[in-house]
Amino acid sequence: MTPDVSASPVSVALLLPALFICAFCCLALAVMKGFYVKLHYLAPPAVLAGALVTAAIAFEEGTGANAVKAGLVLLVLLIGNPVITFAAARAYHLRQVSRQEAEDGKREEEAQKDGEDGP
Fold this sequence. Notes:
- 84% of the residues lie in helices and 0% in strands.
- By secondary structure, it is an all-alpha fold.
- It starts with 8 loop residues before the first helix and ends with a helix.
- The mean pLDDT is 87.
């Protein structure tokens, strides 16, 4: 017994760009250098691909409960993605600052030791 997985051409036309957007952004995350540059490739799958998938579900299911649930998921993605991106950027920045402060502290200690051992 196989499930019926046929989709209309309109749904396929909506889902294929979503697939390509996600694939491109995954590839870009792997290739790009720098944390902040990589953060820019997190938004298109959440926003663009999420909207396309929601539109495909709404087209296939009509205005029923499944379309409403997909719309709510899209709303969570639209609200949550910038918040999570900002939190990740801030955490990375704070981590870099604390590393820099630790390195500066080690340099000061070494300079003080060198000053004590001097003439």
